[in-house]
Amino acid sequence: MKALEDFTAAFSSFAWGLPLLILLVGGGLYLLIRSQFLPFRYLGHAISVLRGKYDNPNDAGEISHFKALTTALSSTIGMGNIAGVALAISVGGPGAMFWMWVSAIVGMSTKYFTSTLAILYRGKDSDGNIQGGPMYFITEGLGKNWKFLAVLFSVFGMLGALPVVNVNQLKQAINDIILRPNGVEVSFGSNLIIAIVLVILTSIVILGGIQRISRWASKMVPAMVVLYFVLVMIILGIYIEEVPKYLSMIVTDAFAADYFPKDKPFLGGVLGALILHGIKRGAFSNEAGLGTAPMAHGAAKTDEPVREGLVAMLGPVIDTLIVCTLTALAILVTGVWQTTSDNGVSLTASAFEQALPYGQYLLMVCVFFFSVSSLFSYSYYGTKCLSFLIGADKKHYYNYFYILSIVLAATTPFEAMINFIDGVFAFMAFPTMIATILLAPKVLKESKRYFASLKKTKS
């Protein structure tokens, strides 16, 4: 296990260098400026599209705008919001959250462009079914000479879609919140039992395809976000006098970079390392620029690519600016980030336990639904990647690999899993962002046409 942890740490460190930071943040800023801050100017229209005002059941695609967003959110609103934020704060202090905010704001533009492209350049799989995603907008938009980027994305996409962090942290939550406090001995056997239960539950849903996944996601995602929001708002109400202090600290520490827990000298007070750490955790949370969300949004029923881009850009707002911020404030105002050595989901559980009666059990309910919803949608992404590589008739083989990874994740250390996923996400981002930047003029042209048409309709 030590060798595995060392290897994945080296892999993550290699992947997350300055080139990727420039590509994700610099590329996102470029798209934001080129679009003249369009994501912020059409938030109201995006919400109207999401509510179904422009839905047409006769349009090409498989699912509604709302179901596309909830399917995408069911993968992003997961352990990145609970374990990822806790990890960011435990390593980088409150300032890490600021750079997650930056990641989300830039990510709104990135998701607008990538998901617009997912509809604009939809392709067909070997069965003749319409599909969307980076691998298709690379081959359809850039041409066959760029297919190597599509293959690169698909190979790493299959690995990035594995639910290893969600499963690992759900296992840790069950162990730390339910089993150990009640005197149950945690062992390889107990972890294996958890894995088997998750395998059965996941298999029932994922073998039904995108229609069944989207039905579950459209019910679970709104409910779990509301429940989590209510619980954290109660905590913030209890510690209301601490909230302004820590909101201020999130901003000031982002630039001072002079606070780190004494037992975690990893970043050494270097501002650049703090920025990289925050952007990495932000990418893990909202996945903007990685290419997963366009695969869900590419299945939407619409003949207007811009509409789906507008819906997609709401993802980072809900995921990072709202849910991640709530988690960060709960951890900060309760003080557990300074008084406990816990990490990941256990740190968030400590905050809930300190603030609320049976708070850790209420968090357990949220953790369960966050994790399970992610389990459902990630499998869809992996099957689409395999389908692109070897044919739609063989895509079901991915589900068996996916289910096997659940068992592996439940019996492997957290550090190894998070480093593995961080590294794989990096190699998904390179082809996605390169293609998006090259195809940005096509999105801008389509945007100009759509919004001109919208103004004519309103007038």
Major pleated sheet: 2 strands, antiparallel
Distance between the termini: 65 Å
Number of helices: 22
Name the shape in a single word.
Answer: globular
Topology:
Layout: H1 2-15, H2 18-34, H3 38-41, H4 43-50, H5 65-76, H6 79-92, H7 95-120, E1 123-124, E2 130-131, H8 134-142, H9 147-160, H10 164-179, H11 188-206, H12 209-238, H13 243-256, H14 271-286, H15 292-297, H16 305-312, H17 314-334, H18 336-339, H19 345-355, H20 359-390, H21 397-410, H22 414-458
Antiparallel strand pairs: 1-2
Word description of this protein:
The chain has 459 residues and is mainly α. The protein has helices at 2-15, 18-34, 38-41, 43-50, 65-76, 79-92, 95-120, 134-142, 147-160, 164-179, 188-206, 209-238, 243-256, 271-286, 292-297, 305-312, 314-334, 336-339, 345-355, 359-390, 397-410, 414-458; strands at residues 123-124, 130-131. It has 22 helices and two strands. A two-stranded antiparallel sheet has the order 1-2. Strand 1 (123-124) and strand 2 (130-131) form a beta hairpin. It is globular and about 60 Å long.
